[in-house]
Amino acid sequence: MSLEQASEIQRRMYDFIVNYMKSEGMPPTNREIGRELNIASTGHVDYHLTMLEKKGLISRQAKKSRGIKLTKQVQEGIPVMGIIAAGEPLDIFSDASSSINIGSDMIETENTYALVVRGRSMIEDHICDGDYVVIKPQSTCQNGDIVVAVHMQEGASGSSTLKRFFQEKEHNRVRLQPANSELDPIMIPKSVWDREWQIQGKVVAIFRQCIAAA
Amino acid sequence: MSLEQASEIQRRMYDFIVNYMKSEGMPPTNREIGRELNIASTGHVDYHLTMLEKKGLISRQAKKSRGIKLTKQVQEGIPVMGIIAAGEPLDIFSDASSSINIGSDMIETENTYALVVRGRSMIEDHICDGDYVVIKPQSTCQNGDIVVAVHMQEGASGSSTLKRFFQEKEHNRVRLQPANSELDPIMIPKSVWDREWQIQGKVVAIFRQCIAAA
DNA sequence: TATCTTCTGGAATAGTCGTTCTAGTTTTTG
DNA sequence: CAAAAACTAGAACGACTATTCCAGAAGATA
C-alpha cells in the first residue's frame, strides 16, 4: 500500500506524475510518461501504471485520457511533529499525526514543521497552552529569537524547551529566557552550551484554534 | 480580463471547468463540457473556449487533450478582508488584498474570512497587534465568545469592534468586554442593542506571523 | 435597412489516447 | 538449476480529442 514496495522505475514514474500535476495542473498521458522515463512502449507504461494501481498509489479511470488520480493527495501542509513542553522531553511523533495548512504566501513551507505548545512558559509573549508554533529548522539564531533548544544529555533522550535565546557575551554564557515572570531563565556557560545544547529551529508563526469561549 | 465581460454561457462554462477540476483533478475535455452544458457541437464549445481565452480567463495548450489551464488559480485560502481596530470603522477591502491559507482540516473555510487586528484591546486574551483573526460569520453567539460587533449609526458607516460578548440578563443589557484592564467595557441597554448593533461573526482562530525578534 | 458581433448545429479530419496482444529479456525465488 | 515474477519492445486497434470549415439564427449597432 505504499511507495516502499514499488520498484525504482515505478517510484520515478510516481514522482513524475506528482510533479507533472503540480506544474501542469493535469495528469500526464501514458505517452508523456514514457517519453520522460525513456520507455519506448506505451504498453510498457500501462504495465507499470497497473502495478502502481495494484499497490494502491494511484487510481485510474478506464479509457479516459489522462485518467490518473493520486489516491493520497499530496501533503501540502505543515506536519505537526509533536508536543513541546518547557523542560520536558520533546514528544516526537515519528509520523506526522496531523497537519496544519498555512499557505506558502505567508511562510516557507519547505522543511518547516509545527509543534503543539504545552504549558504557560511563553505566556507573556502571547503563546498559550495548545497553540501551534511553526518552526523553521536552523542551527543558529539571533538574540531575541524564540527557539526550540535541545539539551543533549548522555545516556538519555534530550529534553527540549521553547525559549527566547540571548547570547550574553559579557558573561560568556547563553540565557534561555521564558516569557513568564514566575519562571527563571536558564543560564548556560558557553562551554557547556557548545557541548550539550543544540538549536533546532526558530518560531516563525503561531496558530491558535478557538474551540469555544474560554 | 474578468468574468464580468463574459456571457452567461461562458460564465457557466468557466464555473463547470473550475468545479470539474476540483472534483476530478484534471480539466474536462471539450466534449465533456458540451455534454454538461447541452451544447451539441464540439466546434461550438471550442468557440466559447476561444472567447474565454481571449478574455484572459483560461489558457490552452494546442492539440493537447484536456489542455485547459486556469489563469488565476482558484482562491483556496481565507481572504483577508480588512483591518479591525477597536471602535474605529472597519476598514473593509472590497476585494481581498491577500489571503492566508489555513487548511480545511482545522477550520471550515467556507464563508470564513480574516481580519488584521490593530491595537491592544484584546491583549489579555493574547490577541496582539498585527494578528490575523479568522472570523466565521454568524449573527448570534454565546456568552464569552469573541465577536466582531458592528454599531449601525444612522447617516454614518458603522463602526466595528472586536470584543467578548456577554448578555447580562439581570441588568437587561449587553456588555462588550475588551481584554485589556486599561479599557472599559461597553454597556448597551438591550433595546439599543437590538436597534443599533449587529454581530457579524465569531473568532474561530488566530494566526500570527513572527517576522523578527520583538 | 444593412452590417457586425455573438451564438448555434453538423460534419469531417488528422492526430492522440488507452488498451491489448505477441514475444522476448532479465531478475528473483524456491 | 528450474520456475516464477518482473520487466521491456513493437505493433496495432478502436475510441476519443481538438480543431477547422460551412452554414445559418439571433440580437445589437449605426
List its salient traits.
homodimer, 214 residues, alpha+beta, Arc Repressor Mutant, subunit A, Umud Fragment, subunit A, ten-stranded mixed beta sheet, two-stranded antiparallel sheet, 4 helices, 21% helix, elongated, DNA-binding, serine-type endopeptidase activity (chains A, B), transcription regulation (chains A, B)
In terms of topology, how is this protein built?
The structure is a homodimer of 214-residue chains.
Chain A: H1 8-24, H2 30-36, H3 42-54, E1 58-60, E2 68-70, E3 78-85, E4 91-92, E5 98-100, E6 113-118, E7 132-137, E8 146-151, E9 159-168, E10 173-177, E11 186-189, H4 190-196, E12 197-209
Parallel strand pairs in A: 3-6
Antiparallel strand pairs in A: 1-2, 3-4, 3-5, 6-7, 7-12, 8-9, 8-12, 9-10, 10-11
Helix pairs in contact in A: 1-3, 2-3
Chain B binds a DNA duplex (30 and 30 nucleotides) through helix 3.
